[in-house]
């Protein structure tokens, strides 16, 4: 086996760049391997699911799914920890990681495949990565194929005629809240990146590369823009902050975004799956959201519940989660 880890991924995959950012922060030797025809034999050998990133360990084991990848590597490389020290901030960081992976992906996917300009840009970049040596004609045909396939999939994350305006309004609100939070600190929880930064950032990084939403970030959220750049090569620049220092600008994110939208959606999605429904609707804020349930979400929700169960002293945490609308259903 080659020295170090190999990360088979793509620049356009939020979960791949999330894992790469983590490896860079930890200074763990690794190679970034593009997912294309050249890496196909290695991918087939080690992958159990057709998703990226795939991490191949130095002893020849394949690991997938960005959250368990980071959890596993963090056990082997615990310093500097990506988990803030207080029970409250530690769990809220895990909650934001999940929020980024699952809810942030709705913004990302929706904006990437919603408008012509973004579809053309994104499909073209994916086609070039997968087939770098293609002729112009082959490239155009492949781009058209990728575009058609991905546009046909936006429903999967819940983007449709009813939800599209809600996704965009929600994203713009989040951008403003995040910009205010990052105005006085380099990372979400203070002077160094936390678990939550990696999950949320993967989606923001992708959005920054896309024309429409990249313009919103670059044109209107200078602190988010700096964080998008900073997280490409994150560094330990200082200590984590306490909850009381973070709360003035982090609590609005928890309440308006994580609680009112993501957590309400999560519980409705879980119920729809349990009831065997083909479609569900749920009121988020003052708007009705409609979509087909997302199955894979159950797995990451289970991991988040295990993290909550692992927090020994939940007194302060429960008060904050209840105030933000994220406590119901965590104990299940
Ligand atoms: N929960 C997984 C999600 C991974 C995922 O959805 N990866 C996408 C790319 S970002 C993928 O490989 N999709 C299959 C495909 O595009 O064919 C994780 O966190 O790693």
From TrEMBL:
Recorded superkingdom: Bacteria
Molecular function terms from GO: transferase activity
One Pfam family, short name: GST_C_2
Domain GST N-terminal residue range list: 8-79
GO cellular component: cytoplasm
Keyword set, alphabetical order: Transferase
PANTHER family for this protein: METAXIN RELATED, PTHR12289:SF67
Protein name per its UniProtKB record: Glutathione S-transferase
Organism: Bradyrhizobium lablabi
Lineage, uppermost ranks: Bacteria, Pseudomonadati, Pseudomonadota, Alphaproteobacteria, Hyphomicrobiales
